[in-house]
Design a protein that fits this description.
three-stranded antiparallel beta sheet; 10 strands; Glutaredoxin; elongated; about 20% strand; single chain; alpha+beta; Antioxidant, Horf6, Chain A, domain 2; binds benzoic acid; five-stranded mixed beta sheet; 7 helices
């Protein structure tokens, strides 16, 4: 129970600066701060040479250009060693026909995993869960996802999260349920009586109006 509480207390939160770190990786030593100015997707997997993780890393590598197009740097992590990562990614690369194009951190001492709350003792004391941190160019955590060991992630959903975050940041809007790029976005709800009146006027002008606190617009 004490270990559980310690982990819960140290979970980074949305809107907080992403804790900086330096670590060994398949691309040599890296630090989070070197990616300042770029979006970063920091994700953990439980272990090298395991089936679900292999499907994930293979798919992240196969669709890497879709992350690149969005200006997102992928950083993988597990508590395996650099040699284990290299042997595993080489095996993946041989089947994929090209190298795994992003670093995978070797977090043997669990320093980064602990910093990011990636160890969930109820799931495993020794392996990271499938955590994903979306970090903006200023180094602020904008979203985080946690999946259990048994559940592989969806690349489509990860890209959708990135698209939603980048759209919200660029246009100061929000994105509704199941939103994908090209669909209408949601404008902030009125916060004053005056803004409610403005919203009513928007309805009269034929903007997409469902109720005074739910209006959509096309970007
Ligand atoms: C997997 O990637 O298949 C896996 C890893 C750790 C525990 C269970 C499954």
């Amino acid at each position: 129970m004490q270990a559980q509480e310690a982990v819960t207390a140290s979970l980074p939160r949305i809107g907080q600066p992403a804790p900086d770190f330096e670590a060994k990786s398949t691309f040599g030593p890296i630090g989070l701060s070197q990616y300042r100015g770029k979006w970063v997707m920091l994700f953990s997997h439980p272990a090298d040479f395991t089936p679900v993780c292999t499907t994930e890393i293979t798919e992240f590598a196969r669709r890497y250009n879709e992350f690149e197009q969005r200006g997102v740097q992928l950083l993988g992590l597990s508590v395996d060693s650099v040699p284990a990562h290299l042997a595993w990614t080489r095996d993946i690369a041989q089947r994929l026909g090209r190298p795994v194009p992003f670093p995978i951190i070797a977090d043997l001492d669990m320093k980064v995993s602990q910093l990011y709350g990636m160890i969930h003792p109820g799931e495993s004391e020794t392996a990271t869960v499938r955590a994903v941190f979306f970090i903006d160019p200023e180094g602020i955590i904008r979203a985080l996802l946690y999946y259990p060991l048994s559940l592989g992630r969806s690349v489509d959903e990860l890209l959708r999260v990135i698209d939603g975050l980048q759209t919200a940041a660029k246009h100061q809007v929000a994105t509704p349920v199941d939103w994908t790029p090209g669909q209408p976005v949601v404008v902030p709800a009125p916060a004053t009586a005056g803004e409610i009146l403005e919203a009513e006027e928007a309805k009269a002008r034929g903007l997409q109006y469902e109720t005074w606190y739910l209006r959509r617009r096309t970007l």
